[in-house]
Every structure is written in C-alpha cells, then in structure tokens.
Amino acid sequence: MSPQGTAHREGIDSLTGAAGLARALRTHEVDAIVGVRDIMFVRLKQAEDELESSRNQLRALTAHLLSVRDSERVAIARELHDEFGQALTSLQLGLAWLARNVKPAQKPLLTKIGALSDATTSLIRSVKNITVELRPGALDELGLAKTLKSSAREFEGSAGIPCGFRTNTAGATFDRPAAVAVYRIVQAALTNVARHARASNVTVALMKRTYDLVVTVRDDGKGISRKLIDSQNSLGIIGMRERTVALGGTFTLASSRSNGTLLTARIPLSRVVIGPATAA
Ligand SMILES: Nc1ncnc2c1ncn2[C@@H]1O[C@H](COP(=O)(O)OP(=O)(O)OP(=O)(O)O)[C@@H](O)[C@H]1O
Ligand SMILES: [Mg+2]
Prior knowledge:
The protein is of the alpha+beta class. The chain has helices spanning about 5-100, 105-135, 140, 145-160, 175-195, 225-230, 235-245, 270, and strands at about 165, 175, 200-210, 210-220, 250-255, 260-270, 275. The strands form two sheets. The protein has a five-stranded mixed beta sheet. The chain is elongated, with a radius of gyration of 34 Å. Magnesium ion binds near residues 188 and 236. Adenosine-5'-triphosphate binds near residues 223, 228 and 237.
C-alpha cells in the first residue's frame, strides 16, 4: 500500500474507533439512565402502594372510630335516661309531695318549691332532648324516612328556614347502622346550612334508585369554596364523606355562589335497604 493509502486507512480506523467509543459511551450512559428511570418507577410504585395502603388503613380507622362514637352515644344516652332521668323524676315527685304538705301560711317556702319544681321540669326536658340527640330512638319507632321528615320540620322551627322533604322509600326497611349513618349525615348537613349557608330554602331528599339510595341536601345559600370542601380541617365534611364511603358509597358537594350547595351521598341499595330492595 502506498504511504498515502496507509495514512488513509489509519485515519478511517481512528475515526471508527472514536465513533465506536462515543457510541459505547452513549449506550452506557443511556443504559445508566434507563436503569435509574426503572429504579425510580419501581420506587414510585412502592410509594404509591404504601400511600394507598395507609389511606385504606386510615379509612378503616375512621369508620371504626365513627362506629365506636355511635355506640358510645347509645351507651351515654342509656345512662342519662336511666340514671339522671329517673333521679330527676323522683326529685320532682318529692317536690310535689313537699308542696302538698307545706302549710299554706308558709308562702315563701311554697314559692321556693314551685321554682325548684319548674327547674326540675326543664332539666328533665333537657335530658330528654340530649338523649334523643345522642340516640336517635325515633329511627326505631318511625323508620328513616319519617325521622328525616321530622328532622326537616324541627330544622324549620329552630333555624327559621323552610325545609322540604321528598322520598320514594315508602315501605322500605333500612339496616339500622346504615340508617344511623344517613341520619347523622343529614343532621350534620342541616347544621351546616343553619350555621354557614345563609340560605332561604332547603330540601332534603331520600330517593331509592335502581342500584343506589341517593340522599341529597340542597340549599340556596352562599355556597362553599372548593378549598373548604377539600380542606383537612373541614372535619364535619370529612365525617360525612367517611360515613358514606364506609357504606361503599360516594359523597359529593357541588357548590356555587349563585346556586348554593348540593350535598349528595349515593349508597348502594344492597348496603342500606334490607327490604323491599327494588326501585320505587
Ligand atoms: N351548606 C353550606 N353553605 C356554606 N358553607 C358551608 C356549608 N357547609 C359547610 N360550609 C363551610 O364549610 C366549612 C366546613 O364545614 P364542616 O362541617 O366541615 O365544619 P364546621 O361546620 O365549621 O364545623 P363542625 O366540625 O362543627 O361541623 C364550614 O366552616 C363552612 O365555612
Ligand atoms: Mg359542620
């Protein structure tokens, strides 16, 4: 080979060598990058799985706490009713006996007994109201729909805001813990309307659809911001949502300044209605 040919050959060799090295380096880098990316994917997946599992644990814990709170309320209501209720009733009977046996001449004493008797009567009423609040006994006597209807009427009386009630669940029987959950959701929603909404109209509805029981509370008040709906400090809203989710349902709050707030809890019929379960 001529000297020029040899130089040309060496030139080509050194070029392929450099290109090959560059290619090898690039491939190596790409391999490293792909490796890092794969590791990151795996770690991300692990983090997602851990997050999902702790979210599920938190959900289960909340559902458990809510159900413990409900049974504690029932126990406190029973204690209040049995201990205080009976003690106050005997106190009132004793005062009535005193009033009958005090001489008419002892007027100041009679007045005092009368005042004590009035105070006792009002205490008995308070204990009764607290007991009803703690343990919605009306659910057993009236059923869910009638209890909600009477809640709507009570709300009208106490908040001074007209409150309608609609249902198509006549004849349906509800599972008690599920009915308590629905009752508590509606109570919390109505309390929110009274406290925050500045509404002039409210409607509560309990509707049986093909697959779900749909509970709605609609007001025409000032609405809630998305930030407040999603805030971790909105414990009332979180409680309503968790009660719904614990029954396998979905919970939404739709709100706007012009249209007020619409709360919807949609719960599978199979989890709440024990008969007859067909859509009305
Ligand atoms: N119907 C409503 N209309 C307007 N604002 C509302 C309504 N419901 C809730 N809000 C707003 O959302 C916030 C969070 O409601 P949430 O029920 O979680 O808490 P809260 O009522 O302030 O306290 P609580 O824990 O006693 O229920 C309220 O403070 C209020 O500002
Ligand atoms: Mg509230």
